[in-house]
Amino acid sequence: MSSSDRSGEAASAQSQDADSAPSDAGARLRVSLDRGRTQRQPHAVALAGAAALGLLVAWLHWIGLVLGGALVALVAPSLRRGAAYALGFGALVLVAFAVSIGGSILLVPEMRPIVFVTVAGAIGLPLFGSLARGIV
Amino acid sequence: MTDDTTRRGVLAGVLAAGVGGLSLSSASDLLDQFAPLSGDAWDAADRSLPDAVESPYGDADLHVDGRGVPHVEADDERAAYFAVGYVQAFDRGFQLDLQRRQMRGQLSEVVGEATLESDEFHVAMDFAGAAEATWELVADTRAGPLVEAYADGVNAAFESEQLQLEYELLGYEPRPWTPADSMLMEKQISWDLTGSFVELRRALLRERLGEDRLAELFPRRLDHDVPILRESTAGVGGVGGQNGGSDGQDAGSAAASRGSESAVTGRSEPVDAGRSDPIDADLTAWLSGFETPTGVGSNSWVVSGEHTASGVPLLAYDPHLSLMAPPVWYEQHVETPERSVRGATFPGVPFVIAGANDSGVWSFTNVGADVLDCYRYEVDEAGERYRYRGEWRAFDVEERDIAVSGGEDRTLDVKKTVHGPMIERDGRRVGVAWTGHTATRTTEAIEEFGRSEGLDDLQESTRKFDLPTQNLVYADSDGRTMYYATGKLPIRRIDGEEVRGDRIFDGSAGEAEWEGFEPFGESSWEGFVPFEEKPHAIDPDVLGTANQRVANDPTHYVGADYATPYRGARIYERLDEAVAEGEPIDHEFHRDLQNDVRDGRAEQLVPELLAAVNDSADAGDRLADAAATLDGWDYRMARDSRGALVFARWMDHFRRLTVEPTFSDADLDASYYPNDWVLATLSDDSELFGDRSRAETMIAALDETLDEIDAEGWSTYGDWNSTRAIDHPFGSEAPFLNYDELAADGSSATVKNYRVDSAVGSSWRMIVEPGGDATAILPGGNSGDYFSEHYDDQFRRWIDNDQKPMDRTIDGEETVAFEGESS
């Protein structure tokens, strides 16, 4: 049995404990979060949802890059994994960006120095947002 | 637990501080612009023309071909020009606004303090007022409604289409385009071609160098025999506007008995120390910063059908204007029942300026005419009134605000006299009269050119071409050819005698003022050179213009800013040779001549340099090797040539070593140096050579040249003579907007013209057989949109003068249907 499976059982036990106190919304959220972090299917759903929401907000404002990084990190099992997820989210943002501007993407690498802001924003801001994993 | 809580608290604090800091700092602006997905700049990355556009003027079809050239077809001319405005704004929308801002003195509003002096100059000159006066005149002509439709098209694109990247970078949107803005574009190009304060510079040079050295270094007439109108220039219609020409049926000779240019040259100019005093060195230097860019000029030549392979005239043209990204020219094609015209125009101008229609082809090179005068005045102590013809007059004053982005806005009192704008700076003043400071009919002329039906038609329209002074070269499909100097030429008289204009006049005395000129109003032009007395040639067999002196003995004083004759001489040399040998002249011949890079300066100077090295006892192996390189060189300024590199750099060092000591002592910088023809023909015993002989100076220059080449690591001409100078107005901040840096051919003195030091060169090349084949190329691309495939798709072809077709056929897969309200 892997350590993640063991932690899954522990989380499940915690979840049952939490169910005994339905009035505690914070605890319910905590339970959901833990499931999202530890159980494969909920984790995948949560990660996809977090990334999608992050992308949506990032399309509207750059703060969405921070938020997206925070959201994907929050569903990560650990802070370190959260940072990795945030980097992955940054890569996803760059792919979405490339797709969104079509053929013009070929010219973007030449757009120095402003392309540095773009790439640094795509990678750095989600990574910064992943610090949220250390809070919750 | 406490540690965990502390850690969480610290992380939360870092996150909050980070996000807050980013939001409140300048980083937020950068992210607003360039963040992936949300950055405003990326909105401009995916622009495309719509399939359909609603037009208030009726139906029109727009096709954009594989080189980004728009082809507009409509039954109604206003519908066509609405579409022209729309597509120009789509392709060059930022350039339109930038040019307008420059001429209105509104650059600082978006750029900041860096352009404040430019704005102060342009506001003080009130080019906008001149444009308004011009529009009042043009509005009621046939061109007026077309200009209005064009402006509406521009505004429709500004409102409906995603703006170009530069707008996003600078964070502003353009104000609506007006017909007067299009008139302002006419003023801009005219100023770029004729805005010369030569009289101020000459006065300063006279004071600093003395009369004798002024005459030696800045002769009013260069010693050469290749004017545009040569003694051999003759044709069916004759030559006019010069004395002693074959006058034929023209009235040019009628003025021969009156004051000719030779009669109004320096010898007849009254020597008056008071009037010859310079205005002020600092003011002169400041104004010089806004003059015609150094090296602006052009080539154009025509060969009649008698000497061409097709039996129809053939015309070649390449104007030498500022090279930039995007180019100053924009190519367009318009088909209506009234016109079938294709060619180049300036963005912001509705009509083709240089191009071809179904009947003929026309082109312009700069005359170098003197159409700007400077005046000094007696001004009262309060600076509110000036003396004019014995009485005190209040300046016409208007307060103007100059908005400054990120800085304090400025207020400027714009002052005018009876002659035109009064420029004031640091307590120094000079009055200016410029032929562009009145209502001009050039827009009417250009509109008529597009639907002209042959030489007679076009010649009649040329009467309205008030500004700028240009060498118009024309050929039609009936085999006729023409040269005519366009633009109004002022006549100055003192005590009844015609005088030159390259001196400062006494404005308070009303000295030499232009009769019939109404600044910022409508002029009668009655005191200007009559149309028939301007230099011209009807049906010349062979005629070449390269900004050299128009004629050896023109009927009236024309100008003072003629180019050195290197290009003109080379063009005539090759044309004469081809004609003499009976070589049928075709497109290929013209393209080859446009590509000619033989440098006349090298022919003059290299043999002398080689002799100097040969005669020198001190010349070591290094100099001998360089001499051997030059000895085996063919004087061609080709990008892969070592000899061209050595010569080009040597020329600069020779000029500096010869001129700098004297000019530095006189506190005159390089902008005041004499031209290369003067340098090349300078006498051996000129005092400029100082302690060294001319030969020693040449050798010293070669020594410095080789040091420089070694230090820089250059091996061929193209290593130095590259396109690095061709940049975007914001290329220093955003270098990606510049074109690629490529090795280039040509020099300031070659037919294939390129000046790496001032980014001036062939800004458009075309070769046209009237009614037949036509080709052209731009130095860059037709689109000003960085993300467009047409931003720079002609650049490499331009380097090689590999021209593309310029046929008047509707072409292009990308189409836009402009639909009238009834459609």
3D architecture notes:
The complex is a heterodimer of chains A (136) and B (823). Chain A has 136 residues and is an all-alpha fold. Chain A folds into two domains: 1-38; 46-134. Chain A is built from six helices and no strands. Chain A has helices at residues 3-19, 25-38, 40-60, 63-74, 79-100, 114-129. The longest helix of chain A has 22 residues, at 79-100. Residues 1-19 of chain A have low confidence and may be disordered. In chain B, strand 16 (421-425) and strand 17 form a beta hairpin. Chain B has a domain at 600-723: Penicillin amidase (Acylase) alpha subunit, N-terminal domain. Helix content of chain B is 34%, strand content 18%. The radius of gyration of chain B is 28 Å and the shape is globular. In chain B, helix 18 (600-615) crosses helix 22 (694-712) and helix 20 crosses helix 22. With 823 residues, chain B is an alpha+beta fold. The longest helix of chain B has 28 residues, at 77-104. The chains are: A mainly alpha (136), B alpha+beta (823). At the A-B interface, helix 3, helix 4, helix 5 and helix 6 of A face helix 1 and helix 2 of B.
Topology summary:
The complex is a heterodimer of chains A (136) and B (823).
Chain A: H1 3-19, H2 25-38, H3 40-60, H4 63-74, H5 79-100, H6 114-129
Helix pairs in contact in A: 1-2, 2-3, 3-4, 4-5, 4-6, 5-6
Chain B: H1 2-24, H2 26-34, E1 52-55, E2 60-64, E3 70-73, H3 77-104, H4 108-111, H5 116-125, H6 127-138, H7 143-160, H8 165-170, H9 179-194, H10 198-209, H11 211-217, E4 235-240, H12 273-276, H13 281-288, E5 297-303, E6 314-322, E7 330-335, E8 340-345, E9 354-357, E10 360-366, E11 372-376, E12 385-388, E13 391-394, E14 396-402, E15 410-416, E16 421-425, E17 428-434, H14 442-450, H15 455-462, E18 470-476, E19 481-485, E20 492-494, E21 497-499, E22 504-506, E23 536-540, E24 542-545, H16 566-580, H17 587-594, H18 600-615, H19 621-631, H20 642-665, H21 676-680, H22 694-712, H23 717-720, E25 754-755, E26 760-762, E27 765-768, E28 774-777, H24 795-799, E29 804-805, E30 814-820
Parallel strand pairs in B: 1-30, 3-7, 11-22
Antiparallel strand pairs in B: 2-3, 2-30, 4-23, 5-6, 5-24, 6-26, 6-27, 7-8, 8-9, 9-10, 10-18, 11-17, 12-13, 14-15, 15-16, 16-17, 18-19, 19-23, 20-21, 25-26, 27-28, 28-29
Helix pairs in contact in B: 3-7, 3-9, 6-9, 10-11, 14-15, 18-19, 18-22, 19-20, 20-22
